[in-house]
Amino acid sequence: MKKLKRLPIGRSDFKSIIEDNMYYIDKSMLIKEIIESGDVILITRPRRFGKTLNMSMMKYFFRNDQDNKHLFEGLKIWKEKEIIEKYLNKYPVIYLTFKDLKQRNYEDMIKAIKYAITDLYRKHKESMEVLEEFEKEDYIEIAKGIADNVKYENSLKNLSEYLYRYYKQKVILLIDEYDTPIQQSYLNGYYNEFINFMGNILGNALKDNEYLEKGVLTGITRVAKESIFTGVNNLDVSTILGKLFNDKFGLTWEEVEETLKYYGLEYEKEKVIEWYNGYNFGGLEIYNPYSIINLARNKGEIKYYWINSSGNELIKQLIRQSTAEVKTKIEELIEGKTIESSMDENLVYGDLDKSTEESIWTLFLFTGYLTWVEHVGEEGEPRYSLRITNKETLQFFKKTVVTIIKETKIELESIIQDIILGKYKEFGIKFKKIVKETLSYFDVSGEEPERFYHGLILGMVVGLSKKYIVKSNREAGYGRADVILIPKEKTEPGIIFEFKKYSIDFDKDLKESAEKGIKQIEEKGYEEEIKSYGMERIIKVAIAFDKKDVEIIVK
Q: What tens digit of pLDDT does each residue of 244-293 get?
């Protein structure tokens, strides 16, 4: 029996994987595609899709201070003799990774960025031999970590010049997960003061840098409008919407099949698709590599791997604070429907505060929680149909919604039980308490409180799905009911909820608004859907609201 290669769980250093003879899925032809692409290349993919490993591979391929031929012998790129001869270990390389920079405040993040650059200067101290005295002074300040912000903002560009002078060869600049610090600054509330510092470091290094042979950056999003990439000449951008490098991050079915076969795991394709596929990279069917590798490690045990690997706090935050319209669409997605939205590939984190739907759905797509099905816009219009990617990400949405409901202390089963037991007054007291205590949690942007009620509906869809068939905003009778609860036990009653917003022009008071809700349930035949399941006992609940004031009629 042959000894199987170890899986590179938690490893992203290409050299150690190859030298330790670990299992490696050959993505080396990315090097050829990079060489043939623009002078500056930005690659955006979801987390844990092989960005760091591929950048590490390129670092060892290009760097001229090591002989790394043994790492690439036998890989696909080795057959490209002209590339091997011209590029392998021929360039000075500046390599930076920001993937672990997750500081919670501005001061600590600035220190972390400076330390990463300080470390870089220490590693390349050979270039000091060609510097003028005044340049050496600046170099030493950065190497000691005592330089001012302006010197750090110019540090990558200056280092590329120093290395060019020393090696008489242009530089390869590799920056991994460039947007991690930017996302962290947004999450922790110091985005506006941080973005200029970060933008200047990258912008100065990339724009009109005559010492740059090629710059490659990876991240999750293209943060463009903050001027980082504005004015960068010959820029190639590879996102999940385009074909560029579409098979070089994540796994194709052939690669999945080869991996599972190697580890003796027999699976029907449909099972693996259901859990770990669904990613559409430029029209190519791609599987989540993190989940597939962990599936092989755990001897074929199907479970949630990727969604439990952290890094999803921003998505949770956006669900929490989203508008009623976004919550309604999340509900539709959880139910297996598709939605449509335009995509803003030039994402601005500042726009997320405005809860613009386009920015939110773009981020959901680029982070891998949604996938695009087809382009539905006019030619040149970036409008796509979207759905939840697979069973892993569906679980994330469900779990997040339940968590939000728990955070807001909405005890859905308890208040529904009060209705079933005829404790209508008790239900009313509890519901009004929930509204007063939690409305501000959902109404974070000062808008009208519809988002709270839609959040409640979303919670019902997920939180009560074990005991009820929950239908909302569906056709029922002659109109659309807000929420219909159809119990799975036929001895229980069905429940219809109708939410009515008070109208100062048409309603005398909240009670009249609620009475209109009951009348609407009866006149439009909302009961017919419940009766079609063989239930006769139906409870009608009309909830009228005006900001935090609520009136409830149960019949």
A: 999 999 999 999 999 999 999 877 777 888 999 989 999 999 999 999 99
Neighbours of 294 (CB within 10 A): 20
How is the beta sheet containing 40-44 ordered, strand by strand? 93-97, 171-176, 212-219, 40-44, 235-238
Contact at 8 Å (CB) between 202 and 181? no
**Phi/psi at 205 (nearest 5 deg)?**
-75, -30
**HSE-up of residue 181 (Cα within 13 Å, Cβ side):** 28
What is the tens place of the pLDDT at every residue in 371-422?
Answer: 999 999 998 899 999 999 999 999 989 888 878 777 766 677 888 889 989 9
| Tokens 């037991």, residue located | 421
State how far the Cα of 509 lies from the Cα of 448, in Å rounded to an integer: 18
| Token pair for 383 | 């409008």
274 class by beta-carbon count within 10 Å (0-12 exposed, 13-18 middle, 19+ buried): middle
What six digits make up the tokens of 216?
Answer: 């490659």
Cβ contact 201:156 at 8 Å: yes
Which spans in 243-352 are helix H?
Answer: 253-262, 269-276, 289-297, 313-321, 324-334, 349-352
Please compute Rg for the chain using Cα positions: 28
pTM, full prediction: 0.85
Q: Is 363 in contact with 350 (CB distance < 8 Å)?
A: no
